[in-house]
Amino acid sequence: MFYFIVFILLLVLSVIERTELDDKSRSFLVFISWFILVVVAGLRYETGGDWDVYGQFLEKVTPICEFVSSGKTGSSRHFEFGYFLLCSIFKQLGLGIQVLFFVIALFDITLIAKALKHYTKYVVTGLFVYYSLLYLTLEFSLIRQAIAASICFYAFKYVPEKKMFKYFLLIFLAFLFHMSALIMLPLYFFFKVRFSSIFLIIVVCLGCLIMLFQITWINRALLFVVGLLGEDSLRKVVIYTTNKVYNVNRGIGIGFFLNLFLFILFLWKRKRFEEKAYGNLFLNVFMVNIIVYYYMYEFIEISVRFRLYYMLSLVVLFPHLLETCPKLINRMVLSIVLVLYCLTTNRKIYMNDPSTIVLNPYQNYVIHKCLDKKSMGKIRLIKNEEFVKKERKKEKKNE
Fold first, then answer.
1. Nearest to 127 by CA among 142, 139, 113
2. pTM of the complete model
3. Which range is least confidently modeled, 19-33, 88-102, 293-307?
4. What is the CA radius of gyration of the chain?
């Protein structure tokens, strides 16, 4: 219920934003939305799927001064150097995991909000879409990739500006926090191209057929490409492609049709998108999202990880859709459709489904410490692990 209340609150703010407001009022709405997102993620307490792993890493990591003198990291876990360095500095300063979570949430949401000001006039609507589609995954379970994704999202602004060096520099910075960001380097040249609508239709139709007929092809290709990045990268991919928990195909579900619906909708509005400075760019980013979804159906875990970068296109394209509807009635109908789409993404979380136990109920650090409440964090993690294993076994039996 807590997450649904936040959803409704951000939805109301986004609706208010699209009325006749002066710049000062719009800025105030952006601040409120930004504040909500920072506080909810930054002050979460033993909530989400990552807090225990990252908490243990911070406890064991070597302080920065000791690392410089000895070269020892102090932890057996191999996280990217940027994240290690951040934790090492926090350890040196005597700061705990809660401060780390808050600083990361502050950085991510601030960078996304700042980038949105370049991409659309409906910044609050963009933040609402981010919350609905990506926030609870990135900010509550994948904080390293959340840092990388926010940096990549900001880097997009340099593509139309043809500032390749700045783009590459930011992508490299993102790579220091999550290796998957490296895939964004060659895509710089792809993002600049305007592909014909016929070509895009052929690509999507072919992907649909590959997924419908369960044509396997990606395993060897993926292992070869990732192997070029080094042994550590290859080891992680091997785990995701061979481990029984992760090695599961994506089935034909609601996502198959929702992505197809969005593709048709965006193609219909393509000319209006291209009137905007970043329209073609984010349409191309969305196309990569579509390609990954249909063509990489064999491995849900890897597909989801890659798609998190490209789904950020919806944070811009959804507000663009509303901007391209001059008639009030058309805008109202489109708003209802987009809200329903956003609602379906986290419907299980809002309904307190057993699969979302690591998120439900939400625990706030300040409240738990002030009231001295007992946390159920550890128990929830154990139950979630058991639930995931059971569900993946069922999926394997049904194949």
1. 113
2. 0.89
3. 293-307
4. 21
